[in-house]
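Q: How would the C-alpha cells look for this protein?
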Amino acid sequence: MALNDDWFTEICTESGSAFSLKVKEKLHQEQTPFQRIEIYETERFGTLMVIDGFIMLSDYDNFLYHEMMSHPALFTHPDPKQV
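A: Here is the predicted structure in C-alpha cell form.
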C-alpha cells in the first residue's frame, strides 16, 4: 500500500503503525517462486530493497548490518586488532 505512486509504505498491522519513504522511481520488480522483490530509488535513503512488502535494507542504513555481523567476531577474538 502507498500514499500514492511517489511513496513506498510498509504497514505493521500488529502495532498499528506505518513507515513511508518518498520514491524517485521503481528500479525493478519481480515475482520469484518464493518472494516478491522490489527495488526503489528513494529521496533520502538511496536504493531500497523490499521483499514481500517489507523493507530489508537501504543505502542509508546498510552499514548497520555490517556492524552487527562484525562485532560478535571482534568481541570473541583474543586479539581483534589483527582481524
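Residues 7-78 form a domain with the Spermidine Synthase; Chain: A, domain 2 fold (CATH 2.30.140.10).

The two ends are 44 Å apart (CA to CA).

Upvote if useful.
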